[in-house]
Specification:
The protein has 730 residues and is of the alpha+beta class. Among the domains are: 165 residues, no CATH class; 94 residues, Pdz3 Domain (Roll). Strands 2, 5, 6, 7, 8, 9, 10 and 11 form an eight-stranded antiparallel β-sheet that branches. An eight-stranded mixed β-sheet has the order 21-18-17-14-13-12-23-24, sandwiched between helices. The protein starts with a strand and ends in a 14-residue tail after the last helix.
Length: 730
């Protein structure tokens, strides 16, 4: 039996890469049901029995997986389901009885069909969009409609909101009524296309995720997609999707892939429609995820257009259309790389600082131990040695958006910066603790060190950052906390484990099962809380919609006994660094914009309503447009001190000459002065911090991290104790 341990940000999802489909006889769903139930009981980290308590949660989750916005079922339906199944689903699973899955699904299907018929009647009415009413944006926590009359009122308002949303959509190619009609026709087609296997897959996935959000049942087609990703056969746009409330949601962008390079598609964006080249868009709301994936992936050098509801948008009418040319993903672009930044220090002397970007903790598992095997640690060591050769005075490890990877690499990479000692603890369901240690006493870099993280830094990234923080070796800078994934999963192919499935191997699918939990050497878990930054910077990623705490049913934070380890006694001056950084951040215009946008988004989420009045919505859009124009004018009026940067990659790390980095400069028209046109946001579209970075050529987090590193260097050398907020370049 082959076990795989996963430390990456988990992806309950499908990978958008070219593949060849497989065909096989379907296994007995009852036998698969028994297998998954037993594996969860016996193998999951929690040790939780599949009992009545789990049954009640499972039922609630299954109902909500079907009707996530509480629109189709009524309270009467929910009461009936609870009476029949709340304490019996556990028995049905262990007896191999899938009938409840189909019974509940068939009620859902009937309710949707009745509602779609009523929607088409409501579409015949005229809607002036001049009322003072509002609708809820997110109904996940709303009560179920208490009866048919309550459902009718809810749907009248909802449909009016959808029509207004399309009327305000700047990318609309058809009248709102036609768009909405096509949407609900597609919903009906999606229902008709659902097979028994699809229903069982949903049922089993919900069962798995009732234990924790990273345990997941994969059907045979999803397992094949996953296997393709593990083999690194990457052709497509380089994105990972997850089904989320009827949308295909972007969960990860593969570094170096077409979507990553384009820069407009973001983690958290939700795909609402897909078009091939110049063909008509196909609405994807409530479409099966594998069908959405099939539409997006395709042959190299072909074009796909995505209509997306941006993660940063507070108005549901906002859409952006992103055209991406499919391509082979160059794995070299996922390798570690570095820059040498030359900038004036507090005393006017030119300082050299190192900046290492690490997209993931990668390793060549099949050739592990070979002298030429790929290794994160080996690659970073080569970059560090070149940075030392170039006389850098400090280094920043940039782990922003690093979703994790190899545990061994996380441990070994930590070893480049400490003498030796424990790095992380892992506890299994029996309470046994395994300690991973760095046994190499050599240190590659003992100078000033920062680690830059954000909410997308997960798993192995968190192990690395936590260890350096516990050893007092580095200052952690960035979002208030990292992602908070402190669990390990193993992949179990059900056909290989359960002998009664006979020759069915991957046809029975697989279970990605949480088997261990990670703990810092100081005793606390990285689960749920992540790694807290020593110096926090404003960020739009600091959102309740991103991170472990945003997932349903995460395992709790807990602690184990701390280990004996020797902290570095060199002072890091964290209070002084924090005070100086706060003074600069207060004066920094880009951070001010981020703070304003974050507070506005948080207020909108808390309010959770949106107007059904067209004039009100248009005024809001115009106000947003005016704000963007005002900010662009402010950006154009400010100049920043010049600084030089040189690129160090694994290809040129041994070459004598350094390669200059072309630094784009801000332009009031949204173009980089290097000649590269920056994609401009559509009218009414909300931008995020990454879009601003691309437009202005300035990364405020990177600039401030370099400022903090400069302060640390000066303080550790016994330099000046007081400096003004404007001492360092922006």
């Amino acid at each position: 039996m082959k076990f795989l341990r996963f430390l990456r940000l988990p992806l309950a999802s499908l990978f958008i890469f070219s593949m060849v489909g497989i065909a096989a006889d379907e296994p007995d769903p009852g036998q698969v049901l028994i297998s998954v139930g037993r594996l969860l009981e016996r193998g999951h980290f929690s040790g939780q029995r599949l009992d009545d308590k789990v049954s009640a949660r499972f039922l609630k989750n299954y109902i909500e997986a079907l009707d996530y916005y509480r629109l189709y079922f009524t309270q009467s339906d929910i009461d009936t389901f609870n009476t029949r199944y709340a304490t019996s689903l556990d028995d049905d699973v262990l007896l191999g009885n899938p009938d409840p899955a189909f019974a509940i699904y068939n009620v859902y299907k009937k309710r949707v069909e009745l509602r779609v018929a009523r929607v088409k009647e409501l579409l015949k009415r005229e809607y002036p969009f001049d009322s003072e009413r509002t609708i809820e944006i997110d109904r996940k926590n709303a009560p179920w409609p208490k009866d048919e009359a309550d459902a009718e009122r809810l749907w009248r308002d909802r449909l009016e909101g959808e029509l207004l949303q399309e009327a305000l959509n700047k990318h609309a190619v058809d009248p709102p009524v036609k768009v909405i009609t096509r949407r609900y026709d597609q919903l009906q087609r999606n229902l008709k296309e659902q097979t028994k296997e699809d229903v069982v897959k949903i049922f089993l996935s919900v069962l798995s995720q009732t234990y924790d959000p990273h345990s997941e049942y994969m059907s045979r087609s999803e397992l094949e997609n996953f296997s393709i990703n593990m083999r690194l056969s990457l052709v497509g746009i380089g994105a990972v999707l997850q089904s989320d409330e009827g949308y295909a949601k972007i969960m990860e962008l593969v570094t170096g892939g077409p979507a990553f390079k384009d820069g407009r598609l973001k983690v958290g964006d939700r795909v609402t429609a897909v078009a091939q080249g110049e063909k008509e868009f196909v609405d994807t709301l409530d479409m099966k995820l594998d069908k959405v994936v099939e539409m997006i992936r395709g042959k190299k050098n072909t074009v796909v257009r995505l209509q997306v509801f941006p993660s940063s948008a507070t108005d549901p009418s906002v859409r952006k259309v992103i055209e991406i040319t499919r391509d082979e993903i160059k794995l070299k672009e996922q390798e570690a790389k570095a820059e040498i930044v030359e900038r004036p220090g507090p005393d006017g002397r030119i300082m050299r600082l190192g900046w290492i970007v690490l997209p993931s903790f990668y390793a060549d598992m099949e050739r592990s131990g070979a002298s030429n095997a790929k290794s994160t640690t080996k690659d970073v060591l080569a970059l560090v040695n070149r940075l030392k050769q170039e006389k850098v005075e400090g280094i920043v490890m940039d782990l922003r958006r690093d979703g994790g990877g190899s545990l061994e690499e996380a441990v070994n990479l930590t070893g480049l910066f400490i003498k030796q000692g424990p790095v992380v603890q892992a506890r299994d369901s029996n309470g046994s603790i395994n300690i991973s240690k760095d046994t190499n006493s050599s240190v590659a870099w003992d100078g000033p060190l920062l680690v830059c993280t954000n909410r997308l830094s997960a798993s192995a990234s968190e192990i690395f950052a936590a260890a350096l923080q516990d050893y007092n070796r580095a200052v952690i800078v960035g979002d208030p906390n990292t992602f908070g994934k402190g669990t390990v999963q193993t992949m179990l192919e059900i056909g290989r484990i359960m002998p009664f499935l006979g020759g069915a191997t991957n046809q029975a699918g697989a279970l990605k099962l949480t088997i261990q939990k990670f703990y810092r050497i100081a005793g606390g878990s990285t689960q749920l809380r992540g790694v807290e930054s020593d110096i926090k910077l404003p960020s739009m990623y600091d959102s309740t919609n991103i991170g472990e705490s945003a997932l349903k049913g995460p395992l709790p934070y807990d602690t184990v006994e701390p280990l004996d380890f020797t902290k570095l006694d060199r002072p890091l001056f964290k209070p002084e660094l924090k005070q100086r950084s706060a003074a600069r951040v207060t004066l920094d215009q880009e951070f001010r914009y981020l703070t304003e946008d974050f507070e506005k988004a948080r207020a909108r989420l808390a309010e959770n309503t949106i107007a059904l009045n067209k004039k009100v919505r248009e005024r809001e859009i115009e106000e947003e447009k005016a704000l963007k124009e005002k900010r662009d004018a402010e950006r154009a009026s400010i100049t920043h001190p010049e600084q030089k940067a040189f690129s160090v990659t694994l290809d040129n790390v041994a070459k004598p000459e350094l390669e200059p980095v072309k630094i784009a400069k801000a332009s009031p028209k949204g173009e980089a002065k290097t000649g590269e046109t920056v994609p401009k946001a559509a009218e009414g579209e909300e931008e995020d911090e990454d879009a601003d970075v691309k437009k202005t050529g300035r990364d405020p987090v990177k600039a401030e991290a370099l400022n903090i590193l400069t302060d640390l260097i000066q303080l550790q050398r016994g330099g000046p104790k007081k400096e003004t907020a404007s001492t360092h370049p922006k």
